[in-house]
Each structure stands twice: as C-alpha cells, then as structure tokens.
Amino acid sequence: MSSILDLIQVHGNQLVEYLLTLIQTMGPLGLVVAMVLQAIIAPIPSEFILAAAAAAFVKQYGLVIGIALVVIFGSLGSCLGATAAFYIAKKGGRELALKFVSIEEIMFVDDLVEQHGMMVVLFGRLLPFIPFDAISYGAGLTKMNYREFIIPTIIGVIPRAFFYGSIGYLFQKQLQRDFNLALLLLAVVLLVAYIIYTYYKRFVKRRYETRIMVANNNE
Fold first, then answer.
1. pTM listed for this prediction
2. In Å, what is the CA distance from 169 to each residue of 83, 146, 172?
3. From CA 219, how far away is CA 217, in angstroms rounded?
4. Are 42 and 100 in contact (CB under 8 A)?
5. What is the mean pLDDT of the chain?
6. Of 26, 115, 129, 151, which sits most exposed with the smallest number of CB within 10 A?
7. Helix (H, G, I), strand (E, B) or coil at 59
C-alpha cells in the first residue's frame, strides 16, 4: 500500500479543489467535512481551508456571522479531524500513522510530548504554521489519553480558527480594493509560511537523525 503522502504529491491540487467545492456547495457543514478530511490527509493546509471558508462565508452571510461560522464549524471540524487522527495512530499503531505523516515528524512529537505533555498539543494548535496533524498522529502514539489530548485541542483550535478566518476576510476585503496589492500580500504570507515550514522540516530531520545516532551508539 502506497503512503497517503505519495498520493497527495500526485493528486494534491485536485484534493484541495474538492475541499473548496465542499465548502461552496455545503456551506458550514462542508467546512466541517473539509476540516476532518484535511486533518486525516495531513499535507493539505488547514490554514488555507479556514481562510478560504471565511472569504466565502463573509461574502454570503456578512462579517460577524461569517467569521462566527468559521470559528464554530471550523473548530468543530478541527476537533473531529484531530480525534480521528489521534485514534488512527492509537489503534493502528506507528505503521499505520506513517501512511499519513513522516517518521521524522512522529519522532519529533514523541520527544516533545515526553518532555512537555499537554502543553505540546496546546501550543501546536495555537502557533501559526505548526503542523496541526503531525501533533495529532504523534500524540496518538504516546501514552497520552484522549482527555489529555482533546482539552488542549479544543482550547487551541478556537483562536486558531478565528485567526485564519480573519486573515481570509482581510484578504477578500483587500482583493476587492486592490487586486495587485492583495496578491502581493498573499505572496508574502505564502513565502513566510514556506520559509518557516522549510526550517521546521530541517530541524525535525536533524532531531530525528540525532536521535537515531544516539540510539545506535547506545547499542
């Protein structure tokens, strides 16, 4: 069986388009479904889904209701998706979890959870550009129970949904005023996200290689 990561590399654009279509056709319920699927198929960015949903909902329902819908249904979808990823790892074990996330990310989360417990889950939800789903899968492979996992997840996903929902609204608003400036702002945000994610991947890889080296030396 090929890994989900391999499938995403081939069909990533189609999957993103499918999730956006769900939001456009099903509204808030579509956002819930999209967030659950996104949480299980880790490489699809939740930040983009939340921002896109906010742009659509604000246009359809107005600012207050639109952002509220993103916070409520985006948070609900995030919690359901995080729960699914947690139990996939908890019941299916490391081999199944590695179909969805990389070994480096799993080992990285293992270390953090061992040292800091629930706080890793909380800050993994709050901080921008931290891979949401690697935390869920990684936590499922530790001794952390569901209660310890879901409480910080609930606390963290609400401000996260509001933050990215607000970004989506501001981008949509700026797009209506100045298309070129909106594209420039989007390019800057994507560039920053790419730089942070690149350094994150390098850090995780070095951490994993160091752990393997230490393990080999102790044998």
1. 0.76
2. 28, 33, 5
3. 6
4. yes
5. 78
6. 115
7. helix
Residue 99 DSSP code:
T
Provide the CB-side half-sphere exposure for 64 (13 A, CA): 0
d(CA 180, CA 190): 15
In Å, how far from its chain's centre is CA 59? 24
Residue type, 97: A
The full length of the chain comes to 219
What is the C-alpha separation between 116 and 130, in angstroms, rounded?
16
Confidence of residue 6 (pLDDT cuts 50, 70, 90): very low
User: What is the number of domains present in the chain?
Assistant: 1
190-200 pLDDT per residue, tens: 566 667 666 66
- Residue 100 has φ and ψ, to the nearest 5°, of -115, -30
User: Encoding tokens for residue 14?
Assistant: 């189609």
The CA-to-CA distance between both ends of the chain, in Å, stands at 32
Domain that holds residue 29: 4-218
Give me the half-sphere count of Cα atoms (radius 13 Å) on the Cβ side of residue 117. Answer: 6
* Residues 16 and 9 sit within 8 Å (Cβ to Cβ): no
At residue 76 the predicted structure's pLDDT band, cuts being 50, 70 and 90, is very high
Q: Which of 50, 47, 38, 51 is nearest to 12 (CA)?
A: 38
Measured CA angle at 34 (ends 169, 141), to 5 deg = 115
Q: Angle formed by the axes of helices 146-177 and 118-126, to 10°? A: 10
